[in-house]
Amino acid sequence: MDPAQSHMEARAMLGIDMYARGEFLEALKAVRPWAEQGHSSGMVLIASMYYQGRGVAKDNINAYMWAELGVIYAKDDEEYDKAITFRNEITPHM
């Protein structure tokens, strides 16, 4: 793994920790680049933030978009199941 990718993943893990501590805006800043590189778990976390209004204004359309991207970019069954379950939870609120 190249150093830039390793740094991005370490920053994403820090972002997940920030989210758990309630530091939502900082978590978003840390996780978003990772999600934008195609990581489904990051996409679903961002979807959750939009859906719940944590660190961002509540926005079901953006929540759905990020969850759908999580479905598309899922690398295995576990990621796919998590993303599609969350997307399906959001759908009735559109």
Descriptive overview:
- By secondary structure, this protein is mainly alpha-helical.
- It has one domain (3-93): Tetratricopeptide repeat domain (Serine Threonine Protein Phosphatase 5, Tetratricopeptide repeat, Alpha Horseshoe), CATH 1.25.40.10.
- It is 77% helix and 0% strand.
- The protein has 5 helices and no strands.
- The N and C termini lie far apart (39 Å).
- The model has no long low-confidence stretch (mean pLDDT 94).
Topology summary:
Elements: H1 3-20, H2 24-36, H3 40-52, H4 60-73, H5 77-90
Helix pairs in contact: 1-2, 2-3, 3-4, 3-5, 4-5
List keywords for this structure.
5 helices, Serine Threonine Protein Phosphatase 5, Tetratricopeptide repeat, single chain, 94 residues, mainly alpha
Describe the structure concisely.
Helix content is 77%, strand content 0%. The chain is mainly α.
